[in-house]
Amino acid sequence: MTPVTTFRGRTVAVFGLGTSGIATAEALLAGGAKVVAWDDTPASVEKARAKNIETKDLRDIDWNKVSALVLAPGVPLTHPLPHWTVGLARNAAVEVIGDIELFCRERKAIAPNAPFVAITGTNGKSTTTALIAHILQSAGREVALGGNLGTPILALSPPSPARVHVIECSSFQIDLAPSLDPSVGVLLNLSPDHIDRHGTFENYAAVKTRLIAGMQPGGTAVVGVDDNQSAAIADRAERAGTRVLRISVRRPLSDGIFLQGERITFAQGGANIFSTPLTGIGSLRGTHNAQNASCAFAAANALGISYEQIAAALRTFPGLAHRMEEVGRKGNVLFINDSKATNADATARALASFTEIFWIAGGKPKEGGLAGLEGYFPRIKKAYLIGESAEVFSRQLGAVPHAISGTLDKAVSEAAKDAEAANLQHPVVLLSPACASYDQFPNFEVRGDTFRSLVRSMVR
């Protein structure tokens, strides 16, 4: 735990009592703050009470005695409408912040030079975060890994010069962290997502920009420059005096890291100074993972890890569940769980990684559906559509062979049977839904776990 001492002796309201909210309340209490907490879900309130956290409906407190409202990242700050707690706080001139902000203030107070890597982007955040942690640990560094990936930031050990915090940051978390100041900031990419929570793509991109704009003096910004918005952010950061390492998987760079065939190459001053292959690393298959690996390479090197140590660590990276995860093989049919692909942009990265695809797609659709994936349709031998989006996706697929399977179990059975019978060299049954899971599953993890279980029961 990181005790939050910067609010010692003051009252802090906490709303949202999921895992991060509970961790926040406990960290504030450990640092000497008075906490009053609430949630719209009675079961979450009871969970907090069981941990001796004071709970009270925040409609009934005296906001004039409150120093800050700490909001869980899943609670709307601005769109579609600010949560009712936000209105109460703002009416009383109380700042609204999140757990990442509490960490940043604590770090500034107790260990301002503690290494802190913050990672954001529309796609690839979790893989890149885990890969950076893996590289650092392989090089013998102590790592505190978490944030949007797994462990809440305040449940991790405190900032220290001897410990590297490697933290995945969602746009929701950045929006609640005005003092975010990593020593290494990573912006992978930007494409439209979470528009319901930010109003417009421009607003969403502006929030993501803050991770780079607030860099600690002397820090390094690692920016993927293959989309126009991120390239512009890199240029602005550099003009402002920030050291920027650019990453591209589409074109050579004279300074930065780029993809050259199946090798990632580090260039400085127009000269290529180091190159390492990604060939044969199953956990880093595909151009999108080349971007993730390049960003991780840059971040680790900025923290003093040698090129050779990084290259060796890349080869031992096990990958993450639900992100291009190899879950089984039946004969020559490979089964890939990419349940985390909840939008078309993420699915494009999976479709680009294979050429003989039996594709399981669908769920709760996002804006645009399959728009932008048309260039990958020739790779699809057949698609198996599930969930709420099935009829819409059927129309968007047009002449691509497909079936409306309806449910995941039926889709897996049909896809496996067809892939086995197809007599192809490298057939892949790919779950990459391009949709949220909420129509049939509580989250993408449960969807992916179900796929994995179905496959493993089949291949035994």
What can you see in these coordinates?
The chain is of the alpha/beta class and 460 residues long. The chain folds into three domains: 11-97, NAD(P)-binding Rossmann-like Domain (Rossmann fold, 3-Layer(aba) Sandwich); 101-314, UDP-N-acetylmuramoyl-L-alanine:D-glutamate ligase (3-Layer(aba) Sandwich); 325-459, Alpha-Beta Complex (Protein-Tyrosine Phosphatase, Chain A), CATH 3.90.190.20. It has 15 helices and 21 strands. The protein has a nine-stranded mixed β-sheet, sandwiched between helices. Strand 9 (220-224), helix 9 (228-239) and strand 10 (243-248) form a beta-alpha-beta unit. The radius of gyration is 23 Å and the shape is globular. The two termini are 42 Å apart. The model has no long low-confidence stretch (mean pLDDT 95).
Q: Main sheet?
A: 9 strands, mixed
Strand order of the largest sheet: 6-7-5-8-9-10-11-12-13
End-to-end C-alpha gap: 42 Å
Mean pLDDT: 95
Query: Can you tell me the CATH architecture of the largest domain?
Result: 3-Layer(aba) Sandwich
Structural class: alpha/beta
Question: How large, in whole angstroms, is the Cα Rg?
Answer: 23 Å
* Number of domain units: 3
CATH topology of the largest domain: UDP-N-acetylmuramoyl-L-alanine:D-glutamate ligase
Q: Looking at this structure, what is the CATH superfamily of the largest domain?
A: Mur-like, catalytic domain
How much strand content do the residues show?
15-25%
- The CATH class of the largest domain turns out to be Alpha Beta
Number of strands: 21
Number of helices: 15
Helix % is 25-40%
Dominant shape: globular
Report the uncertain regions: none
